[in-house]
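FAQ: What does the model actually see?

It sees only this:
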Amino acid sequence: MKQVMELYGDVEPFLRENNDLSPATREHLMNIFDNPDEATDLELELAALIDAGAPFVSATYYLEGEGPLVFSCYERLSTVTGIL
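And it is asked to produce this:
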């Protein structure tokens, strides 16, 4: 997950160099990057989403496995909801 934030700095130059992307999405993102406060908010929101989503992603990948998952399913899902 840490790699996502390392690549965050590449997003704005990529958007500026590629005019053939989805016009509405590109314009919206460029408006965010052109405003330093909004760009900082976007970076913080992305970091928070990554940190909060890590236990959920880990649990769902684990539960995709084969074998007797019924014994560990409750424990894994409890970590996602914060019960344990």
